[in-house]
Amino acid sequence: MSAMEDSASGAARGFSLKLLPPVYASVMLGLFFLIPLGIMLAVSFFHRVEGAFYEPAFELTNYARFLDAFFIRILGFSIGLSIAAAVIAVLIAFPFTYSLTRARRGTQIFALVFLLAVLSLSEVIIGFSWSTLLSRTAGVSNLFVALGLFERSAAYYPSLPALLLGLVYLSFPYTVLVLYPALSRLDPELSEAARMMGASPVRTFFTVVVPVMKRTIISTIILAFVFTLGAYILPQTLGKPPHWTLSVHITDQAIFEANLPFAAAMAILLLLVSLVMVAITLLVGKEDAVGGKA
Amino acid sequence: MLKKATRRQFLKTTTAAGVGILAAPAILRAAGEPLKVGTYGGYFQDSFDKHIYPEFTKATGIEVESISEPTGSAWLVQLQAAARAGQAPADVSMMTQTAATKGANDKLWMPLDSSKLGNTSALPEHFVRKYDDGSIYAIGALSWYITLVTNTEVYPEPPTSWKDMWDPKYKDTLGLLAKVDNSFLLEVTATTWFGGTEIMDTEEGILKVMDKLAELKDNVRLWYRDEGQFQQALESGEIPMGQYYHDVTGLAAADGQPVRSTFPQEGGILDSGSWCLIKTSKMKEQAETFINYMSQTDIQAKLARKVGTAPTVPRELTDLTDEEFAAVSSDIKPIIPRYDLYNSKGDWLNQKWAELIAS
Known about the structure:
The complex is a heterodimer of chains A (294) and B (359). Chain A has 294 residues and is an all-alpha fold. Chain A is built from 14 helices and two strands. In chain B, strands 1, 2, 3, 4, 5, 6, 7, 8, 9 and 10 form a ten-stranded mixed beta sheet that branches. In chain B, helix 3 packs parallel to helix 4 (97-105). The longest helix of chain B has 18 residues, at 43-60.
């Protein structure tokens, strides 16, 4: 967010020599984002040849097919699931990152390196590890049995909680790494002032730190939301078929049914719906900020 | 173990693999380019690399570059996209019957010259697939069975019938393939409960079969796209029963894993792979030599011994002993998939299937 603002203001400041960065940025954006997106948009209107591939055309059948109770339900579930995972991840990550920025430098570096390492794990590894940890034969329930808590071990996957757990685990490092710069730049005088006026650390956290960081929190939730929306291995490994998200169905259409037009149409719709949600969130955040000033 | 388990799997890295293949620089050799042959990655490919390609090169002088391909339909999409760009990620590919047909509908396969394929005369007719104009586009490579598999430690006695999958005592224990056109569970249900796959001739009949299949959903713990996912769980006993490939299960058992493959009394599912040549290939002659070589009866027998697959040529033509043949096949009449349906109403079937298992 702030990086975008910086480059925007940088472009406004200079006009002649500084034209290069925005041009470079536009070319890269076009090359690696707009052109692929344009191709996908075009394919989403193409004609599916059943039992073969597709041919260029302009038709809305792929979009029409989506307007079906089955896919609408999946879209609703996917969005709800991603929001839940994003909110939980930020709920855990925010206090964690706040205390991290107040920890010793060595601890901070260690934690960040560790999180970067977790970040390097692919969805496949994460899904496989959690399914083992949650399994009947080798999972944590065996530990509970050994401790005498349960009589026999049980399997905790596939299930909705298992899937949520996996998604939160997947997005947690991202949320921490996004929150970290903002939280470490947070002026310590703010909370010091609150403390001097007699507020407890917990009260300071909730009445000073959280309100000041509100926009950062919202943009982090959006980032985590968009990120988990793309997960398609975890729903297959940790969830039951009703928990398969739209991304799983898009993959199915693209990879297994060779129905690229329908897969593209679903992807475009998913993109639009997420954009609308992001826009609404930002608008609501803005109104709040304006209201706060008044 | 995991590597072995990844034969027809939806490669976790489908995209990565695809990009890797497309991006790999063409390997040019002094003697000309090698023939690129695609087989299912993992244990299948390993067996071909070890037992088949070196001797083929020795016999013909044609070098082979072994390409690892993901499951049939996924590879088909990559080949279709590559062909449109004028590329050939593999010259010859082993394709499932459904994928071979879909490719043929798209005219993706190059017609082959029958005069160069003398050895294929021993093959049954359905293994020599032809375009409408009579030209050949696919030759049967090998067959495999999908059977009922169990963990021997969890179930000391093997199940005997596909009907056992509906038995409430197996609640939450089954691992089944997640796609209508690779699980062939509709054919299994039709054969087991409706006396044969003829009921699938009409859409009403198919819906009846689906209703019956829906009754076993409570017994399913995992609907898998990825073979490795199920094989590991089967071996550990986490998911102690399900449908799986007879050949890989036999190999795992030979490795000392507590698993077994049982041909149910209604028959195992017989599926097969065919050799297809992508139309953008520049290696037609070499490809025909390869396909002809692979169709020899003694090579088919060798595949049965080394890869664990069933031969495509009639058994009498091979020198397989009773024991060797029993290890890769069965005398029980197999369940033959209704490939015609996946071709004519694939989208409808897929939609109904998705609704069936995801609701």
